[in-house]
Amino acid sequence: MRQAARGHSSLLVVVGTSSTGKTRACWEAIQFLAVRGWRLWHPFDPTRAQAALEDLRHVQPGTVVWLNEAQHYLGDLQHGESIAAALHHLLTGQERAPILVLGTLWPEYAHQYVALPRSDGPDPHSRARELLAGRIVHIPDTFDPRALRSAAAFAQAGDRLLADALTRAKDHGRLAQELAGAPELLNRYQTGTAAGRAVLEAAMDARRLGVGLDLPQAFLTDAALDYLSDHDFNDLAEDWAEQVYAELSRPVHGKQAPLRRVRTRPVRRPPGVSAPRAEPDQDPGPVFRLADYLEQHGRSARSLICPPVSFWHAAHGHIADPDDLISLCTAAKHRHRLQWAQSLCRKAAEAGSPNALLDLALMHERRGDEDGARALCQQAGEAGFADAWHVLGRMLEDDDPERAEWAYRQGARAGNRQSLNSLAWILYNAGDIPSAEKAFLQANDDVALRALTLVRSLQGDQEGVKAAYRQMAEAGNPEALWHVALQRSQAGDRKGAEAVYRQAADAGDASAQESLARLRMAAGDQEGAAAVYEQAVQAGSASALMRLAALRQNAGDLPRAEAAYRQAIEAGFVEARVDLAILRIAAGDRTGAEGLLKAAVEAGDTRALHRLIWIREDAGEIDDREAAYKQLIDAGGMPSFVLSFRPSIFQPEQQWPHGLDPDGTPTPPW
Length: 670
Description:
mainly alpha; Rossmann fold; three-stranded antiparallel beta sheet; 8 strands; about 60% helix; about 5% strand; TPR-like_helical_dom_sf
């Protein structure tokens, strides 16, 4: 683009697979030339090849020749080589410069045109190969993490379509394909046959109710029947299922299909090794996967719809995975399909799911079958589900305290913290305080910490409370670590407090490093605080970038502050653009500041619009200040009283006030 703007003719072909954003990238790029008065010409009538061949000689300087899907030009069997020769002449002749030729190609076509011919065969693309040499840019199939972070920033600023696509593309990065294929997928669902819609709706309901990605064809076929009206059901052909799956497997733009057949790899085991009990022995047959966009559409559009009877019947007959059955059991309970819930739960239990045994026990308890519930709980606990021991103890606590204590001890041995806490209270109520405290210390969660400190406070043992915090902190309890750090800080032991904060950070407390930095700031150690923030950034804390940038700016280290702000922008902090813009204004770079503010405005940050108005007013470029502010007010950025005054804080020579918050946090200099 810059070469063309400077008067040099050039050609560029963007190569990428379907729906990766090639055309959009080209369109966005030429806006740079559109504002400079360039024209766009897209040859397409009567055919693309004929239009290009006949009219390339008439192209005038300052024209973008738009060859989207360039295979229709360079790959034309009759005119392709002639078009390549005409483009070469257009680009090398100086009488019509500057000209920009912009095209797109799929990788298979690009490879075909640039590949060297066989020595004993024809060379059908010699002119095209010469034309494309050194003029190809490849677009990847996926967005990299940096680009996804930028996309997330726009999504957070209010781009709902982008936010919707990101929920599906954040793992695989194929964001452009999601955006390109989603509308056609929805159209195929809404305008398809009644049987096709029924199968898709059964798949949508299965996914939103917790069934895994791979849906058995037998399940979908049986489940779909009650989604059909009587009229549509009676009109079904004998081979309706084959027709529907063929229809739904055809891809749309972006190489996505509403319902895609999935190949399952065969499971291979050494001779003599049998399948695990939880693994079904029978082959489920063909399985299909619902398009992500339709799945998400179903979650919202069908959120209040209860599946019909055929869905539950098909699930009981064809779904074999215990986790899927448990999810469906929960969904059936929430929709008061209690008989189906019990049947699905029983099937999951028969498949070896201890979780299902516990769910079944709770169903028996709600029905008043206490003996059955307790037996199932004990069975689940013996099968390795530690939570079941705690539930069994709760069921027994009123009627049989001794057996309840036994159940809690079983759960405690299995590592269940709830059982430990319940056991500790039983021991405390029985007067065995040392054993109760030992159980609380062993549980070492937030509940146990509060319970133990309460017990010692009731005894008037304040030193024991402090000791409890220390004991649990030594075992890595994050809340206890906070209390110990606070104790050491209040005692003036800064090094000891820092050591505890570091221990909390190592234990997974993401905010501990920020607390450590604040502690160093309060002590006047800005470099030490900056080092902590940098460590937090390296550990993945995006919010630490903003703190680090403010701290660097506060210290007068503007280059490093700017680097931190730019890194924060890449991490998705829209507000960092405004903060960086203020830095650029202070440095006298109004153009750079306005560019940042415009980008922030486009991302939905109304603060940026406010500051943009101030900059232009200070420069004398706004004649009607009230109209400019009204635009901001209409956008929801400021209340109407801003019309009455405007503080002038954007002069480059302005000295920025700065300092520290009471807790030692650096305040941004604006």
